[in-house]
């Protein structure tokens, strides 16, 4: 069961040495977003990717990493993200699998809840050491931005093209973050209930630090750079429930009652595609589930 996601040709026993801290195969990626890019083409360009991921032949990585992408109705973004992530993660010599957590139906999009679902579902495959919570529209620009976890939760987006590569604000913890499985469990996953817009202010940086005792690490600014694929604001009130910041910065009262332990969902399908594992769920409305 544990090895279900490992390519049958891989014989991990051969690689007795751990991978180096910095892979020697990193390079400057080329960023391109052709309109006609298809999953089929991405697949052809990444023959070593299997069941949504890959692992290096030559060495054993210190961590096993699950990339969790919350998704609805952003197919073209997803294609571009996969086109860039797979080559980079292979160059980083990671053992990784990409999960796309797809919300069905017309209810308000709930990024937070999908991430909790993704964590719970991914852990059924492999005891991942590290999870990367990844927006579908952010493309990493620098191979040295390693998709690995550390002693503290890591926020991998210091800057993006749209904001002049500057941090949005000090407590910002959205976009792309890396948490060890232990850290994710320690904070009971992601705060998933809509806070009606006021939530982000309530979850101030200081309180989060105080209660959870975790600080956020960031890679150097010249490394933690992303290109955001342009999109219009979504209609039908998606944004209200789209909790970004509240992962760590929430008061203790809600931390243990609202999160992974209150995450109810109906799993509709789970398919293993070459480029990602698709988990389709009905997460209902907050009232129902
Ligand atoms: N998302 C999605 N479909 C939606 C709304 C959001 O797939 O209708 C996911 C997607 O991964 C996206 C993330 O949630 O990158 C954050 O939403 P959005 O990009 O709208 O927020 P922004 O960061 O641009 O404020
Ligand atoms: Mn976005």
TrEMBL record:
Protein's membrane topology: Single-pass type II membrane protein
Record-annotated Galactosyltransferase N-terminal domain positions: 19-149
Pathway assignment: Protein modification; protein glycosylation
rRNA-binding in keyword set: no
Key words, A-Z: Glycoprotein, Glycosyltransferase, Membrane, Signal-anchor, Transferase, Transmembrane, Transmembrane helix
GO molecular function term, any single one: galactosyltransferase activity
Claim: RNA-binding is one of the keywords in the record: no
Listed GO biological process terms: carbohydrate metabolic process
Subcellular location as annotated: Golgi apparatus membrane
Annotated GO CC locations: Golgi membrane
CDD domains xrefs: b4GalT
Record Pfam families: Glyco_transf_7C, Glyco_transf_7N
Principal cellular location given in the protein's record: Golgi
UniProt-listed Gene3D superfamilies: Spore Coat Polysaccharide Biosynthesis Protein SpsA, Chain A
Galactosyltransferase C-terminal domain ranges (all copies): 154-232
Domain of life: Eukaryota
InterPro entries recorded: Galactosyl_T, Galactosyl_T_C, Galactosyl_T_N, Nucleotide-diphossugar_trans
Family matches, as PANTHER family: BETA-1,4-GALACTOSYLTRANSFERASE (PTHR19300), BETA-1,4-GALACTOSYLTRANSFERASE 4 (PTHR19300:SF9)
Family: Belongs to the glycosyltransferase 7 family.
Name of protein: UDP-Gal:betaGlcNAc beta 1,4- galactosyltransferase, polypeptide 4
